[in-house]
Amino acid sequence: MTTTLPSPAVLGARxxxxxxxxxxxxxxxxxxxxxxxxxxxxxxxxxxxxxxEVAGLTAFIDAAGSVQGRREG
Length: 73
Hints:
Elements: H1 8-22, H2 39-54, E1 58-61, E2 67-70
Antiparallel strand pairs: 1-2
């Protein structure tokens, strides 16, 4: 079974949308600042975790605040 990837333009648009989504979480209005373990850091990690889960990965946030995801198989 062969899977055809979307065009580079579609992949780029998806990446840009994902970055725009995560950029909403900031410690400073009008800037992109996320201090380690701040509320905005946690919000961004939750956003990434959710995106991983939508993509079919098993995801979690570890004790260091890093997001990890795994696709079984």
